[in-house]
Design a protein that fits this description.
heterodimer; A: alpha/beta; Urease, subunit C, domain 1; TIM Barrel; eight-stranded mixed sheet; four-stranded parallel sheet; 18 strands; 26% helix; globular; B: alpha/beta; Rossmann fold; 2 domains; 15 helices; 9 strands
Chain lengths: 472, 349
């Protein structure tokens, strides 16, 4: 990216600006220049010359801070055939995400400063901001703590052994205690494996019908209960990853009412899809024909009952759940072209997240400004104060923002994904709500040609200023 | 019903009158291409298969057990798990119908070299195979093949803990031969229902034919949804029919067996005890073995079935297994007839 391009101011004109950090919600223009927000307010269009700025017309669109994803699998290093940091970041840009926190279950895992450095250097050349999450335990083996101080000093923004839970209760206690002074959260993937040996989908009618080993809700709930108790005991910063069960949401609600400082996330798929999708027919079980064993629905934690979906949505709406995380888990084709038992866990989510989430808004489950809060301010607060500027749309903050059409109807086509992971059960499904443009540090990193002028897009992300803007 | 005129015409005219199987004219040729489970069979379609099997039984009783019906057809038995009766009976059924039957086992093929199920299926399809009979330790493997192979028929010979439809059909056929119409008949299935593909398919089949099915066994080996509230609802939560709504659960076998017409004992795998599903074989035998004393509580003339292979003295007493109430050997014979009927019907589809 040339300096000249960076300096071209951008005017986003006439959209509905929603900024949860300031509480602003109204029609306004947004002026961006020098990588930051210059001004937000009505009538800015009249104050600048059209020759001096590039105008993004945003009538009928929503303009808000860029989404922050606290839980993304970018697969690099080690699994570059599934995703790379560059392709994952491009997918994020298409999905309206401007900051990704990369999970450390790579090969080698992110359990030392050298690997953190590798991820951040790769990330600096990517379309969006890349942050690294470090392992809780050495090698993700769940036996002894990783060098948490070193990881924090190298730039990690949280710790997690995600993909696996921290099984050992003693180790979890030590992790929460040891990390207290680092000020970084520990994100735990809650799943007691003893309660779901070989489980591949939610336990219930559908798993019984398909003859697949089930994962009962209690496998998650038991560890959520343990972790809440440990957070209370240690005073550590607990973040509960991808909650899927109604019982877990209720426990978080109770814990927060007692003042225990925990945060929690839910994923778009757990707010839209149910276990019935495993039968095929996009969840329509009235559809006839052979059971499809749709491996694209295999995800950890599993898709559950409609009651669980409703509980996750209401928990998100009332603030019990702090934020939305994608748990974007890209896989190669062969990982899903096999039996359900053999298939890999995970869904490629980044590019469909907004459309999936908007269904809850269109259905009346959550208000649009609340949803945006859970995609911006919520994750920033879960991560810590360093992220606050990236979740704000006020003069002086970095110009990370997204413009989206809340009503645009589009059909998911995995062949158009920027992600290498084409693994989603939503291929061919119509969604309502679509990203039109994404800016990171003032640069348009994505613009939807159907919705906006195609010449807006700049494609050179070789600048390293994203790294210098970042850091914690 | 669909037939194969070209093949039949090729048979010597003098022989054809003798060796053509007698198959009822109104048997259902459903246009079905695959047999993956019984959950998508209507009662009429099941009855059609059983009627066809009766014709095949007649062929099995002949001195020269050979008819030209499937001449020129290629059937592969693709077994990823060990099997005696199922594999041999498919092979025998295919050969009696004059098909070319090729047996593949996982240990002696490219599967050993890591070839995926999909690529194995595509390879067999490219070789012009008409029918793949597959057994696999993973539930849904036959569904996966059926979905991805456009030109072959897939028959499920047992997949994971999902389904074993040809076993259930031979059970239904055997039962019907002895007790007549199955509607309102009381059938007790006892043992490890949780892990049993035989039980799953049998439940669908018997329930579809109107029988009153009761499941019995340790609660730890009964699928949770069967025992959960709401299971008995006539419709699933999304409005689809629940044909299993009439299925009852009674862990106490002495109570479950009262008034039974048929008792099906399931094979108990010893590793279930090691995994802690029940405390000891001794306790299992005491509470859930099917024996003479328990059969005395059933209806007079009640009959015993077992899918095999049997653990004599564990899930069923030796006396009963080899006594006059036992249908176990007849089940095996009928297995050949049922598989002949299915191969015949699929070829005509």
């Amino acid at each position: 990216m040339t300096t000249a391009e960076t300096n071209v101011p951008v005017l986003i004109a006439g959209g509905r600006v929603i900024d949860p950090s300031s509480g602003f919600d109204g029609i306004a223009d947004v002026l961006v220049g020098d990588g930051v927000i210059k001004a937000v307010g009505p009538g800015l269009a009249g104050q600048v010359s059209a020759d001096d700025v590039r105008v993004i017309p945003a009538d009928g669109m929503v303009v808000c801070p860029g989404f922050i994803d606290v839980h993304t699998h970018l697969r690099e290093p080690g699994f570059e055939y599934k995703e790379t940091i560059a392709t994952g970041a491009a997918a994020a840009a298409r999905g309206g995400f401007t900051t990704l926190c990369a999970m450390p279950n790579t090969e080698p895992p992110v359990d030392n400063a050298a690997v953190v450095d590798y991820v951040l250097r790769r990330g600096a050349a990517a379309a969006v901001r890349i942050r690294a999450i470090g392992c809780v335990s050495k090698g993700r083996r769940g036996r002894e703590l990783a060098d948490m101080e070193e990881l924090a000093a190298a730039g990690c923004v949280a710790f997690s052994d995600d993909g696996d839970p921290v099984h050992d209760s003693g180790l979890m206690r030590l992790a929460l205690t040891y990390s207290r002074d680092l000020g970084l959260p520990i994100s735990n993937h809650c799943q007691d494996h003893a309660l779901c040996p070989q489980g591949v989908m939610a336990e219930g009618w559908v798993s019984s019908r398909l003859g697949l080993a089930g994962i009962p809700a209690v496998a998650e709930e038991a560890m959520v209960a343990r972790d809440i108790a440990l957070a209370e005991l240690t005073g550590g910063r607990l973040h509960l990853a991808h909650l899927s069960a109604a019982g877990s949401v209720e426990m978080v609600r109770t814990a927060k009412s007692r003042g225990i400082p925990i945060t929690a996330e839910v994923c778009p798929h757990h707010l839209m899809l149910t276990e019935d999708w495993a039968l095929g027919g996009h969840g329509d079980t009235a559809a006839t024909g052979a059971l499809s064993y749709e491996t694209q629905t295999k995800v950890y934690p599993p898709l559950r009952r409609p009651e669980d979906v409703a509980a996750c949505i209401s928990g998100l709406a009332d603030g019990t759940i702090d934020c939305i995380a994608t748990d974007h888990a890209p896989h190669d084709r062969a990982s899903k072209e096999c039996t359900y038992q053999d298939a890999a866990f995970g869904i490629s989510v980044l590019e469909t997240a907004l459309g999936m989430l908007m269904q809850a808004v269109h259905d009346g489950g959550i208000l649009l400004p609340t949803l945006i809060d859970r995609l911006t301010l919520g994750p920033a607060q879960a991560l810590g104060a360093a992220f606050a500027p990236y979740a704000a749309l006020v003069a002086g903050t970095p110009a990370d923002l997204v413009v989206f059409d809340p009503d645009a109807v589009w059909r998911v086509d995995v062949n158009r994904f920027a992600s290498l992971g084409r693994n989603t059960p939503l291929d061919g499904v119509e969604l309502r709500g679509r990203v039109a443009a994404t800016l990171v540090g003032g640069r348009p990193v994505f613009a939807e040609p159907d919705l906006l002028a195609p010449d807006l897009l700049s494609t050179d992300f070789s600048s390293t200023d994203l790294l210098s803007n970042g850091g914690r | 019903m669909a037939s194969l005129p070209a093949t039949r015409a090729a048979a010597a005219p003098a022989e054809s009158a003798v060796i053509d199987p007698v198959i009822p004219g109104d048997a259902v040729a459903s246009g079905r291409r695959h047999v993956l489970d019984l959950d998508d069979f209507t009662a009429a379609e099941i009855a059609g298969v059983l009627d066809n099997a009766a014709g095949m039984r007649e062929v099995l009783g002949r001195d020269i057990k050979k008819v030209p019906t499937l001449r020129g057809r290629v059937i592969v038995t693709l077994f990823y798990e060990a099997s005696t009766r199922t594999r041999v009976s498919f092979e025998e059924a295919g050969k009696i119908l004059s098909a070319d039957v090729i047996n593949m086992s996982a240990s002696a093929s490219s599967i050993e070299k890591g070839e995926s199920l999909l690529n194995t299926g595509l390879t067999l399809q490219a070789m012009g195979v008409d029918t793949i009979v597959v057994r696999h330790p993973h539930s849904g493997a036959p569904n996966f093949l059926a979905r991805n192979l456009g030109r072959v028929s897939v028959i499920n010979a047992g997949d994971g803990t999902h389904a074993h439809p040809t076993q259930a059909l031979l059970d239904l056929y055997t039962a019907r031969n002895h007790v007549g119409e199955l509607a309102e008949r009381k059938v007790v299935i006892v043992g490890d229902v949780l892990h049993s593909r035989v039980a799953r398919s049998a439940v669908w089949g018997f329930a579809r034919m109107g029988a009153q099915v009761t499941l019995s066994g340790p609660r730890t080996l009964l699928p949770e949804p069967f025992t959960a509230a709401g299971w008995g609802d006539a419709t699933h939560r999304n409005g689809s029919e629940n044909p299993l709504a009439s299925v009852r659960v009674e862990p106490d076998l002495d109570a479950a067996i009262e008034g039974a017409d048929l008792v099906m004992a399931l094979r108990l795998q010893s590793e279930r005890q090691q995994l802690g599903f029940f405390p000891s074989l001794r306790e299992y035998i005491r509470r859930w073995q099917v024996n003479d004393a328990r059969m005395a509580r059933a209806n007079p003339g009640a009959l015993l079935m077992h899918p095999g292979p049997m653990n004599e003295g564990i899930e069923v007493s030796t006396n009963l297994a080899h006594g006059e109430r036992s249908l176990i050997e007849e089940q095996v014979t009928n297995g050949v007839a049922i598989r002949m009927a299915l191969l015949y019907q699929l070829a005509g589809a």
